[in-house]
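Retry 2 of 3 after timeout on previous attempt. Resubmitting structure tokens to design endpoint.
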């Protein structure tokens, strides 16, 4: 059932806006209170967490909270939100882990000159991700989707003085932004082709999308958005390079936020797009490849953060693979693993930052013996690693058991996926203990001076997350009832009850789990040799997606440069010729396509003064053509404008005539002033062969405009707009001069824009007039180029 009123929906706006409010005051608060501002800023996500947690019992019973308001009614766009089991768990992870991340940032970034700015970026990122997972309207979803890309760009490139940080930020923005554009196209297709404007509509539509002839196009576009955001091969390259961000960003990015946005979208869309042959083929293949490749690269890395980054890539591949399998058990496994991964990966990343902070290095082969100096960090690392390795009694064990249950089928397809899952989990087991054991056991290297445990704000987060990984499994009944079962139900589209506990059962899944641990231990013991072999293998291959991204960007720059040389060569005559050719093609092409050429009109009987004005116009044209220099041509050009002003005046429109007189006078004066200040050739010395094409294009443009205006005049006149202005000009705007009312009231913003354009042009003209020719003027042989 839907509940439109309740504690969560009543305070939903408060929960959503709290991170943004905190982001707005963070720089000022930090400058005043220094390090003490951390605790106050952490209250914002903590309060949002409490608001969402208050509704957990209602959500567990199947209640769906929906709230919002009309945003752009004319386009049926609402600023609306939906909170069910799936979005509730994500919201709790984002705000709960986010609270510890803010506290962790206070200790890790202590003393940094831009600490306030960092808080602001982090809280904006938190608010963007929170809005994404609870958004209901499709356009609202996309807005928050792109906000996460923009704010992550700011966070990854926070240390903008380093080239690697700038490159990582740009790479993340390009890849995820490109996927976002594909997602926007998919969401618009769903709206326009099926009339579904929100996620609630999509979920209520049943098989409408699956049975649609546009299903393939929508699926590909949605998957492009999800795969780029959640770093599926070959789009995975941005995620390890995002490690150039400060460690709090890495911990938050990988645990509960941006990298799981694509997974969230796939889980959300599963009831509407899933369980088709395409879905169950594309997702498992991409997911399995990403899982194995990411896990191998994790073992190959020597930097703790890079190791953890690649395990995140592998974990995202595992989640996508499970969602693609689409069975109830697979969705349960994906749900359990997603929550477990958020807890242990957030903790391990904070451990990596604590090690770096205390030992001043993250290189695994340069670390050791830190357990006696950093005991709390070691305990936190061990708790998180045990969960990541799938050891009971931790929530990672529940997830791994369910993964193998989901894949224990006898057909070749599921066996291949099962092998990929075993290989990936074994490699991630080894990576977990490489991070959690090797830096802490053994003898401390001599180059590490005075390693130390960081303060409460640094070790509190990983310790609590590691402890929750244990508590969740020990109290699995409550854990499933309140968190995993509602989340799986919303993702699967039907009621799901999860019962798996931490006590092992002697079955195939447990046997495969034991096999995974054995393989993981072997890989851990041989990790140094494996790392060397993988490094040699990758060096032999050479080219990879990361290098390919650089090649693509360089190619894009070269292409842009080449196109610019063609379309923007710096020649005014080229621009004018191109515009006029396009104009001629548009005029004649449209009339030919629509069969809209006008009939030849009869020559009207003109009065003597009308003949005089017509002759004046023809005289002006001839004067421009035969002018001996450009200044004379400019003055002659004003004759046509004055002639048109006479027509306005004689036809009873003195205000338009006055405006035309002013425009023509100012145009002639300004152009004359400019030309006297610029070094231009006094006349056009081009040969006849160059003049004829321009003359031809100009004549064709004139004929085209004439024919087009005749076609407009000969069509039936629609008086609806005229009647509207006649009816409402006085009644609404209290003006009897309809033209003035249109300009000042009905089109007041347009008029203001035109005034701004005229003002800008005037300033530009003033700048040109005041230019003084220096001693080193740019010489050119081209008479069409201007030499200042």
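Retry 2 succeeded. Sequence:
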């Amino acid at each position: 059932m839907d509940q439109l009123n309740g504690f969560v929906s009543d305070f939903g706006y408060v929960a959503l806006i709290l991170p943004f409010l905190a982001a707005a005051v963070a720089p000022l608060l930090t400058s005043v209170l220094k390090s003490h501002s951390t605790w106050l800023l952490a209250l914002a996500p903590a309060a949002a967490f409490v608001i969402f947690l208050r509704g957990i019992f209602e959500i567990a019973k199947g209640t769906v909270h929906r709230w919002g308001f009309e945003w752009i009614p004319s386009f049926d766009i609402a600023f609306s939100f939906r909170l069910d089991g799936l979005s509730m768990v994500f919201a709790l992870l984002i705000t709960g882990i986010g609270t510890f991340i803010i506290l962790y940032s206070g200790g890790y970034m202590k003393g940094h000159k831009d600490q306030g700015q960092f808080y602001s970026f982090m809280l904006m990122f938190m608010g963007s991700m929170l809005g994404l997972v609870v958004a209901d309207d499709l356009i609202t979803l996309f807005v928050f989707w792109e906000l996460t890309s923009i704010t992550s760009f700011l966070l990854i490139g926070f240390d903008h003085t380093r080239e690697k940080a700038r490159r990582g930020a740009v790479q993340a923005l390009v890849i995820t932004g490109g996927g976002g554009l594909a997602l926007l196209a998919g969401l618009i297709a769903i709206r326009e082709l099926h009339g579904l404007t929100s996620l609630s509509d999509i979920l209520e539509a049943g098989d409408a999308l699956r049975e649609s002839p546009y299903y393939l196009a929508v699926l590909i576009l949605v998957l492009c958005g999800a795969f780029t955001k959640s770093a599926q091969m070959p789009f995975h390259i941005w995620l390890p390079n995002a490690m150039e961000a400060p460690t709090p960003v890495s911990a938050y990015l990988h645990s509960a936020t941006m990298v799981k946005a694509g997974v969230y979208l796939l889980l959300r869309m599963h009831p509407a797009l899933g369980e088709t042959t395409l879905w169950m083929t594309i997702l498992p293949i991409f997911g399995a490849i990403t899982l194995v490749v990411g896990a191998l690269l994790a073992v190959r890395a020597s930097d703790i953060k890079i190791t953890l980054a690649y395990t995140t890539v592998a974990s995202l591949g595992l989640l996508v693979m499970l969602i693609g399998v689409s069975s109830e058990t697979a969705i349960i496994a994906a749900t359990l693993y997603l929550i477990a991964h958020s807890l242990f990966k957030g903790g391990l990343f904070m451990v990596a930052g604590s090690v770096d902070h205390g030992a001043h290095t993250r290189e695994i082969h340069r670390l050791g013996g830190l357990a006696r100096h950093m005991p709390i960090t070691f305990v936190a690392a061990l708790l998180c690693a045990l969960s990541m390795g799938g050891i009971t009694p931790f929530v990672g064990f529940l997830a791994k058991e369910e993964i193998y249950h989901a894949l224990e089928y006898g057909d070749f397809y599921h066996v291949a996926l099962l092998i990929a899952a075993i290989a990936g989990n074994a490699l991630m087991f080894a990576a977990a203990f490489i991070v959690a054991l090797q830096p802490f056991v053994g003898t401390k290297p001599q180059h590490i001076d005075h390693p130390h445990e960081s303060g409460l704000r640094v070790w509190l987060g990983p310790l609590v997350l590691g402890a929750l990984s244990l508590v969740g499994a020990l109290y699995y009944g409550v854990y499933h009832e309140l968190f995993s079962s509602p989340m799986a139900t919303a993702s699967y589209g039907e009621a799901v009850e999860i019962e798996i506990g931490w006590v092992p059962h002697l079955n195939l899944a447990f046997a495969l789990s034991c096999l995974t641990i054995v393989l993981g231990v072997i890989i851990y013991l041989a990790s140094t040799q494996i790392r060397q072999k993988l490094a040699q293998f990758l060096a032999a291959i050479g080219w990879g997606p990361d290098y390919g991204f650089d090649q693509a960007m360089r190619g894009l720059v070269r292409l842009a440069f080449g196109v610019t040389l063609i379309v923007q060569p710096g020649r005014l005559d080229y621009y004018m010729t191109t515009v006029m050719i396009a104009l001629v093609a548009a005029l004649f092409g449209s009339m030919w396509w629509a069969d809209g050429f006008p009939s030849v009109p009869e020559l009207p009987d003109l009065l003597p003064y009308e003949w005089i004005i017509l002759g004046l116009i023809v005289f002006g044209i001839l004067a421009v053509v035969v002018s001996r220099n450009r200044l004379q041509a400019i003055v002659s050009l004003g004759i046509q404008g004055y002639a048109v002003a006479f027509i306005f005046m004689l036809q009873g429109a003195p205000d338009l005539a006055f405006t035309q007189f002013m425009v023509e006078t100012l145009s002639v004066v300004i152009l004359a002033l400019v030309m006297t200040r610029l070094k231009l050739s006094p006349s056009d010395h081009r040969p006849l062969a160059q003049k004829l094409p321009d003359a031809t294009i100009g004549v064709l443009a004139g004929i085209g405009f004439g024919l087009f205006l005749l076609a407009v005049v000969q069509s039936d006149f629609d008086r609806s707009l005229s009647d509207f202005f006649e009816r409402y000009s006085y009644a609404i705007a209290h003006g009897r001069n309809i033209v003035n009312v249109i300009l000042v009231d009905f089109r007041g913003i347009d008029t203001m824009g035109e005034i701004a354009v005229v003002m800008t042009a005037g300033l530009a003209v003033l700048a040109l007039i005041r230019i003084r020719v220096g001693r080193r003027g740019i010489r050119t042989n081209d008479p069409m180029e201007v030499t200042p």
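Attempt log closed. The longest strand covers residues 64-72.
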